Amino acid sequence: MPATLQKRPSPHVRAKRRQRREQILHAALRAFREKGYHATTLEDIARRLGIRKTALYHYFPDKEAILYECHRDSLLEVSRLVRDARRRFATPTERLGYVIREHVRVMTDTLEGSPLAFEVTALSPQHQRRVIALRDAYEQDLRQIVEDGLRQGEFQPVDPKVAAFAILGAINWIARWYRPDGPIHAPELGEQFSAHLVGGLTCRTPR
User: Quick one: pLDDT band at residue 2, thresholds 50, 70, 90?
Assistant: First the structure.
């Protein structure tokens, strides 16, 4: 076999790498939540995993790359939520409620309450552009759900853009006060946010 050809890793090896990557991201998220992104070092992240800092370089070149992957993974996840909502639910009210509940879950479980939404400026210009493009696409999806609700007479007359911003602002602010070990649990929080945010849009009497 030519020396330039490398044997592809086995499924087992790829699975182990994916698992370790997820462990690194979650350790980083916990550190970002507790110390802030700028105060967190690669040593802090490695210490949480019981490994040496040099082991992190097999997966990420630097701390900024870890932050970018946290952003990217979470935005791809919330984008999938919109597709799930369209497939599973018939009405805009149901779709919006589902997306809000699941977005809160992403904030509290996947991101462990880390304030990533406030750390975009810490990314390189190239990574910022990619994150902002994903974020804008998700915002547009939310606006579309609101527009569908207006067109079908389920929602009160509102500006869809302002409504989407209000929803995103409320959910993103969770990172400023939520604690995983606090008295409010993630499922309950998602239900409450859905009730308040969707309830504020729903018509009292369908038009």
Answer: low
* Per-residue b or e along 93-104, where b marks 16 or more CB atoms closer than 10 Å to that residue's CB: bebbbbbbbbbb
- Residue 203 DSSP code: -
* CA quadruple 192, 182, 186, 112: dihedral, nearest 10: 130
Q: pTM for this structure?
A: 0.84
Reported as type and span, the H/E element at residue 142 is: helix 125-151
Burial of residue 122 (number of CB atoms within 10 Å: 0-12, 13-18, 19+): middle
Q: Amino acid letter at 189?
A: L
* Helix 125-151 vs helix 92-105: crossing angle, to nearest 10: 150
**Average pLDDT of the chain to the nearest whole number:** 88
What's the first-to-final CA gap in the chain, in angstroms?
71
Q: Is the dihedral of CA 78, 24, 27, 57 positive or negative?
A: negative
Tens digit of pLDDT for each residue in 73-96? 999 999 999 999 999 999 999 999
Amino acid, res. 61: P
CA distance 124 to 131: 10
Whole-number Å distance between alpha carbons of 70 and 190: 21
Q: What does each C-alpha distance from 155 to 26, 96, 146, 199, 202 come to in angstroms? A: 38, 11, 7, 9, 4
pLDDT for 13 beyond 90: no
**Residue, of 45 and 4, whose pLDDT is higher:** 45
| Residue 4, pLDDT above cutoff 80 | no
